[in-house]
Amino acid sequence: MSQSFDVIVLGVGGMGSAACFELARRGRRVLGLEQFPLVHSRGSSHGHTRIIRTAYAEGPAYVPLAQRAFEKWYELEQLTGRHLLTECPCLNVGPPESEHVEGVRASVRTHQLAAEELSGDEINRRFPAFNFPAEYIGVIEHAAGFLYVEECVREHIDSAVSCGAEIHAEEAVRGWKAVGDGVEVTTDKGTYRAAKLVVTAGAWATKLLADIGVPLRVMRQVLLWFGTGNRPELFRRDRFPIFIADVPGMPFYGLPAIDAFGAKVARHYGAPELPDPTGVNWETTGDDVHAMRANFTGFLRGLGEFTKGQVCMYTVTPDHHFVIDLHPAFPQVSIACGFSGHGFKFASTVGEILADLVEHGTTKHDIGLFSARRTF
Ligand SMILES: Cc1cc2nc3c(=O)[nH]c(=O)nc-3n(C[C@H](O)[C@H](O)[C@H](O)COP(=O)(O)OP(=O)(O)OC[C@H]3O[C@@H](n4cnc5c(N)ncnc54)[C@H](O)[C@@H]3O)c2cc1C
Asked: Residues 163, 21: contact at Cβ < 8 Å?
């Protein structure tokens, strides 16, 4: 006989863990199903840190969601007593024609955010590890920081369990189907029924949500850490902010050194697009390291030896905006996928939105940009 729940959450990574928590705290009987051990490093929510920022280059519509995300992360810190978010300024920099920097400015204007404009020279003087061309432009904002990504997922899971959620690790979902106005979910260990289903399957949504009409692709992304050489003080977060460099060829971003591995540097987008996660090489190669070092050498001074690498996946939509909606064919199913290269910061808000969709079929948050029915 199959067990029955109010809600099943398919995939307990960044978004699914938050959804489990928000639903369980609202008194729902929740089952979370995760194919891997909990808080693993084979999806999209690992690699020590994730940037959180407010002056959002990807569009002013994200700003209220980012502001809510800050509140929700602080709330999770307060509930759990764990430190999850470290404030740190974020520098957005690029040539005068940079779309990224122009996007940041548009969000600053629309929402009257505090931000400071700097020339390339001013950036290099204030932050001596940078070496951007004089004509580059930068916008620095202080309503930014980084999240300890694995701890965030862990705390959402533990908090969900504390509120009564059942979370099954190492139990892969083989399929789901609508049964009446509910759902039936089959795993490699059993069958479960629920009134509602939430699909937060990350890169596996390429297969599990192939029917929703949103083209999803997977990018292999490599995170690299480099030692701080003989001037470690230049890479401390008081002298080396988070940065997103919209440079021609290979846009990249980085975070200050917060431990012995040094500063983290990674490419942003531009990797080959894969149909699903099966083709991802999970090893960091010498080519990955050489390409990154060749790319950043002109823009960063004083970084030392390569210390560590990790592979992770972006699940991208054609417009790089997320999909958060009811399933177009089954209103008892809520979906959240395609978080591209910038979704994690919003996980705390996305959990709240998914709980709203499950309970009411709608949410007070403006998620029009993330419609599954938009045209590509
Ligand atoms: C290198 C890198 C850097 C990034 N940097 C930032 C950043 O600085 N700031 C930011 O905001 N965002 C960033 N992102 C994006 C962000 O991390 C992702 O958008 C976000 O983590 C996606 O979360 P998710 O829940 O969709 O996916 P995941 O966390 O991967 O969760 C999906 C889960 O579903 C499970 N699952 C899938 N199929 C099944 C199944 N059949 N049965 C059971 N379980 C299943 C998976 O195992 C997985 O645990 C970055 C991403 C990468 C890869």
From this structure: yes
- Residue to mutate, 31, 38, 44, 204, ligand 1, most ligand atoms under 8 Å from C-beta: 44
Q: What homologous superfamily is domain 3-46+150-213+319-370 in, according to CATH?
A: FAD/NAD(P)-binding domain (3.50.50.60)
Which residues are the active-site residues? Answer: 46, 49-50, 264, 268, 312, 345
Alpha carbon separation from 305 to 102, 125, 231, 344 (Å, rounded): 34, 24, 13, 28
The verdict on the CB of residue 198 being under 6 Å from ligand 1 is no
Domains in the chain: boundaries: 3-46+150-213+319-370, 90-141+217-316
Closest C-alpha residue for ligand 1 atom 41: 173
What letter would DSSP give residue 300?
B
Does the Cβ of 220 fall within 6 Å of ligand 1? no
Is residue 334 within 8 Å of 327, Cβ to Cβ?
Answer: yes
Closest to 136 (Cα-Cα) out of 254, 247, 252: 247
Percentage of the chain modeled with pLDDT above 70: 100
CATH 3.30.70.100 fits 90-141+217-316, yes or no: no
Answer for the pair 269, 315: CB distance below 8 angstroms, yes or no.
Answer: no
Given a contact cutoff of 8 angstroms between Cβ atoms, the answer to whether 135 and 96 are in contact is: yes
Q: What percent of the chain has pLDDT over 90?
A: 98
**pLDDT for position 376:** 87
Spacing of C-alpha 365 from chain mean position: 18
pTM of the model: 0.98
